[in-house]
Write a structure and sequence with these properties.
Shape of chain B: globular
Largest sheet of chain A: 7 strands, mixed
Oligomer: heterodimer
Radius of gyration of chain B: 13 Å
Number of helices of chain A: 0
Strand content of chain A: over 45%
Order of helices and strands of chain B: EEEEEEEEEEEE
Structural class of chain A: mainly beta
Number of helices of chain B: 0
Helix content of chain A: under 10%
Number of strands of chain B: 12
Number of strands of chain A: 11
Largest sheet of chain B: 6 strands, mixed
Helix content of chain B: under 10%
Shape of chain A: globular
Strand content of chain B: over 45%
Structural class of chain B: mainly beta
Distance between the termini of chain A: 37 Å
Order of helices and strands of chain A: EEEEEEEEEEE
């Protein structure tokens, strides 16, 4: 159980276009979803925290107008990279937090990631 | 601000041997949780083990165990009877008040036959 999917798994787009990445919790309801970014041979960096039905909270340095996050339901969050540029090329990973157990003891489950390449 | 430090960019272990990966952290949270995640070449993040800071007993999951030293803010991972499938990038992480994970830079583990 506790499977998180991401779609697409990889995408190539032209500079200036927008790309939407979907994150779905398949067999559980996620109160919170997180979006991370990982550059090659680096660690995961938190971009934003997304709670269902409310505005996302962005980390310092992350442009909220460029990285639009929508958490429309307890099983779906989307990240839209607007007007993408080559420097936005990266590996984007989402995770979903389950409500079981309450507090910080509940577990985050990660999606398989989306590789974005902007030409 | 939370920081997680992994001082070993790379480690190597022979199959069936034991290896310890180091992690130190700094947090202002009174209640927090610590994790080790594994990222194989597929890049899928896999939870290896977690520790609740209020628990004194070290967490154990089969061949994986931690040495949690709260006063020293140290959280090392021991892998016993290493297997070829253990080869991966290992990330130490802590939670913040919003429950997001703050990751260290990672340790690349190589397992040799």
């Amino acid at each position: 159980g506790a499977v998180v999917s991401q779609h697409p798994s990889w995408v190539i787009c032209k500079s200036g276009t927008s790309v939407k990445i979907e994150c779905r919790s398949l067999d559980f309801q996620a109160t919170t979803m997180f979006w991370y970014r990982q550059f090659p041979k680096q660690s995961l960096m938190l971009m934003a925290t997304s709670n269902e039905g409310s505005k996302a909270t962005y980390e310092q340095g992350v442009e909220k107008d460029k990285f639009l996050i929508n958490h429309a339901s307890l099983t779906l969050s989307t990240l839209t990279v607007t007007s993408a540029h080559p420097e936005d090329s990266s590996f984007y990973i989402c995770s979903a937090r389950t409500p079981w157990g309450g507090g910080a003891t509940d577990t985050q489950y990660f999606g398989p990631g989306t590789r974005l390449t902007v030409l | 601000a939370q920081t997680v430090t992994q001082s070993q960019p790379e480690m190597s272990v022979q199959e069936a041997e034991t290896v310890t990966l180091s992690c130190t952290y700094d947090t202002s949270e009174s209640d927090y949780y610590l994790f080790w995640y594994k990222q194989p070449p597929s890049r899928q993040m896999i939870l290896v083990i977690r520790q609740e800071a209020y628990k004194q007993q070290n967490a154990t999951e089969n061949r994986f165990s931690v040495n949690f030293q709260k006063a020293a803010k140290s959280f090392s991972l021991k892998i016993s009877d290493s297997q070829l499938g253990d080869a991966a990038m290992y990330f130490c992480a802590s939670t913040n008040s919003g429950y997001a994970l703050n990751f260290g830079k990672g340790t690349s583990l190589l397992v040799t036959p």
